[in-house]
Amino acid sequence: MDTEEVLKDFPTTKRVDYLNAASIGLVPNPVIERSTEIETEIAKGGTLALDEEKETLIYDGLREEGSKLFSCDSTDIAIFNSTTEALNSFAWSLDLKDDGKVISTGVEFPSVTYPWLRIARKENINVKLITAENWRIPINVILNEIDENTKVVVLSHVEYLTGQKFDDDDIKKIAKQVHEIGGLLIVDGIQAAGYLPINVKELNVDIYIAGSYKWLLAPFGTAIAYVSKDLCDELDPALVGWRSRENMWDFDALDLSYASTARKFEYSSSAYSVKLGLAESIKYLRNIGIKNIYDHNKKLVDILAEQLNSIKNIDIITPPEDRCSILTFEPTDKDSSAIAQALRKLEKPVEFSLRLGMIRVSPHIYNTENDILYFVGHLRQFLR
C-alpha cells in the first residue's frame, strides 16, 4: 500500500492528526468529486441528469460493488439509507412472536439493540443482552445462551466501543449453533467493512449490514445489506414502496408483488449521489486491497498499544487478541475529557472520540506511524 499516494486524496491530514474513522471516516477526493458532480447535475438538470435508466444504473452499480465487498451475488444486496434503517426493516419483517428470544450484548451500539427492545414492548419476546466481562464478550457465553427458543442472534462484527472483533471462526460457530435450532444470525458490520475482509457466504450469516460513512469512506446517507437467498424468499418486507416491485417503473398501485431479489426491501427514493459515492469508495478501497488496508491499520494499532503499555496509569480496554483497527483506553488518574480538550488545542490538533469516559482511537488508510507517535508523544506530556 502506497501511503504517500493515498495521502494526496486526504488533504485534511496535513492540518489535523485525524484518528477517528470509527466515528466518521474522511472521504477521499475522487469520491467527493464524483458525489458532488452528480448531485450538482441532478439539482441543475432534474430528469435531464437522472432519468429512469440512470437511476437504475446507480442502484445496480452499488449492488455490484457491494457484492464484491461482501463476496456474494449482487442479487443478494439491498440498499438502505442507513444501518439503523436496515436493522429496523429486517427486525420488523421477521414478525417475531410467541416467547421467542433475541440475543445481543450489553456493549452494543444502541441501534443494534433498540429495534428488538421496541418489538418486545409489542410482542411477547425476550431480549437477552449479554453482560460483558471486563468489557469483553466471550464467545462461549453467546453459545451457551442459544437455546430452542432463540430466534435471532444479532451482534456487531467489531464492537463500536471496545474494538473487540469476533473472528471468522467465532461467527461461524454462532451461525452453526443458531441455525441448528432454526434461528438467524444478523451481523452489523459498520465497524468492520472497509478494512476487514468479509465473505458472508463463508461466515454463513443470514443478514450482514454496513453503513457508508465510517471505514467505507463515503458520504452519509446510505448502507448496504446482504440477505441470504432463503431468508429473502421467506420474508415479507415490513417497509414497502414503489421500489419494492419487480417492475418498479410500471407504477401499478393495485398489485403489491415483490422483486424476486433482495431489492424487495428497498422502498423509496433517496439521495442518489451518496449511493454513487459509496460505489466509488468501495472501488477505491478494493483498488488498494482490503487485506492491505487491514494489515496497515492493524500495524498502527499495534504500535499504539505498544506505546501506551509503556505509559503508567493507562488501562487498555481493547482485548489484545481481538483488536484490529480500534483501540480504546482509559487514563486512570486523569480526566479523559480534559485530555481531549488539550490535544484538540494543539497547533496540529488530534481528533479522536470519547466514549463512556474512555478514549477511542481508530486510524485508517490515511494515517501513518508518525500520526500515532505524535498523538502518544503529546499524551505523555499531558500525563506527566
Structural notes for this entry:
With 384 residues, the protein is of the alpha/beta class. The chain has two domains: 112 residues, Aspartate Aminotransferase, domain 1; 196 residues, Type I PLP-dependent aspartate aminotransferase-like (Major domain) (Aspartate Aminotransferase, domain 2, 3-Layer(aba) Sandwich), CATH 3.40.640. Helices cover 40% and strands 14% of the residues. It has a seven-stranded mixed β-sheet with strand order 2-8-7-6-5-3-4, with helices on both faces. The chain has a four-stranded antiparallel β-sheet with strand order 9-10-13-12, with helices on one face. Helix 5 links the parallel strand 3 and strand 4. Helix 3 runs parallel beside helix 10. The longest helix has 20 residues. It is globular, with a radius of gyration of 21 Å. The model has no long low-confidence stretch (mean pLDDT 95).
